[in-house]
Amino acid sequence: MAAESGPNDPGGRRPSDKVRQLQRRLWAAAKRSPERRFHALFDHIRSGDVLREAWKRVKRNKGSAGVDKQTIVEIEQRGVGHFLEEIGDELRAGKYRAGVVLRRYIPKNDGRKRPLGIPTVRDRVVQMAAKLVLEPIFEADFLPCSYGFRPKRSATMALETLRKRGAKGGHHVLDADIRDYFGSIDHDKLMKLVGKRISDRRVLKLLRQWLTAGVMEDGVVSATVAGTPQGGVISPLLSNIYLHVLDVLWTRHSAPLGTLVRYADDFVVMCRTKLECERAEARVRVILQRLGLELHPEKTRRVELFDGKEGFDFLGCHLHKRLSGTVWERSRKRLYFLHRWPSTRAMTQIRQRVKELTPRRRCHADLREVIADLNPVLRGWGNYFRTGNAASRFNQLDTYVWRRLHGLLLKRKQRHLRAGEASRWNRDYFHNLGLHRLRGTVRYPEIVQYRDTERPPVSRVREIRMHGLNGGPTGIQSKKEGR
What we know:
The protein is α+β, with helices and mostly antiparallel strands and 483 residues long. It has 19 helices and 11 strands.
C-alpha cells in the first residue's frame, strides 16, 4: 500500500514520501487489528502533504470542470498553493460543503446511455485526499478475489486467475451482471459498512455529503437518495466496500461451489459442473438481496465452456475454449484450452477510434502527425490485450490501420497518382515512418505447468507450442513463435 512518489507542485517538496509512510502505518495497524475502528483521520485528510499529493493525482487524471466551470488550468494560473490552502482552511474550520455533481452521459454497448457524475475540481481533490487516507485501512480487509480499482491489482490478474482455474476443471461460468449497481447502493447500508472501520464523525460526515450532494442535469438540481455517482474519485473505493460483503460471504460459505473473480461490479463465478453453477447463481442472488441489489435478468447467464461449446465476455476480452491441435497431433487427445482475445465490442471500438483519427480531410496533413496521433491509442490498446491470444486480432487491426493510411495517400494523390506508386505504400512504408506495429507484441504474463499424466482442460495452444506441456523450452517451437 504505497503511494507513487514523484515531483510535487508547488514548491518542489515531496509529500508523497510522507503520504506513503502514513499509508503503510494505517495498513499495518488495520492488518494487525481486524476489529479496530479508526479515529482522528480527518486531520490527516486536511494536512498539507495529503492535499498536495491529492492535487498531483487529480491533475494527472485530468478531467473536465464541474458545475462551477473551474478547470485545472485556471487553478494553476491562479496559484495551486493558494487553492490548496483555501481547501485546508475550509476543512479545518468545518465550512467545507460538497458541491452538486454535474451529470453527463456516455453511450453503452446496448444503445442506452450510462450516467456519469463530474464533481468540481475542488471536490475531486478532497475526495482524493480522503481516498489516500481511507484506502489502506480497507485494503487490509479486501480479499484476493477482488481486482478492480485496487493498488497492485489489475484486470490481467483477474483474467489469469480464470485461466488457471479453468486448468483445474472449470467448465461452467456464471456471467453475472448487477442491475443498475451504482444507482442502487443503499446509503445507510454503505455507511454502516464504512462505520465498521471508521469512527471519526467528521470523516463519516464528509462521505455522507458526497453521497447526498445531488446532481445537476440541464440546469436542474435533483437530490440523490441512493447510489454513488460514477465518475467520482471516491466512488470506486465505496463500491468495493459495498461488494466486499459478497466477497466475504462467498469465501466463507460458498467457495466450494466455484471461484469468484470480481472487478468492481463486474464479476463471474467459474465452477466445475452445471449443478454447481446453478447453485452459485442462487447463492449470489441471496447475497445481493441482502445488499438491496439484484442480477440483471437479461444480461446474467450461465455459460458452458466444455469442449468449446460457448464463450463469454469479461473485462473487454472474449474467453473461449479451443482445441489444441498440437496435443491432438501428438497423442490424439482432445484437449480444449482456454483462450482469450479482444471481444467484438473492443474491436469495434478501436476501429472506430482509428477511423476518427484518420478522416479523409486529413489527407493533406503531414503523415507523421497522423501517425503520432495513432500511436498512443494503438500502444495503449495493445498493452492491455497483449497478454492473451490476440495475435490474429492484432494482425487484423494492423491491416485496418494500414488501409486507412493507404487511403489517405490515395486521396491526396487522386489523378496525380503515378503508375506503381501505390504499391510502394506497403506496411513497411508506414512502419518506417514510426507507426506502432501490434504484430509480434503478444507477451504471456505467466506459464502454467502440466504433468504428462494429467489432462490440462484449459490452457493456450501457443503456450504449449512455446513451452511444452512440462513448461520446458522447446527451441524449434520458440523460433517459430518469434517469427
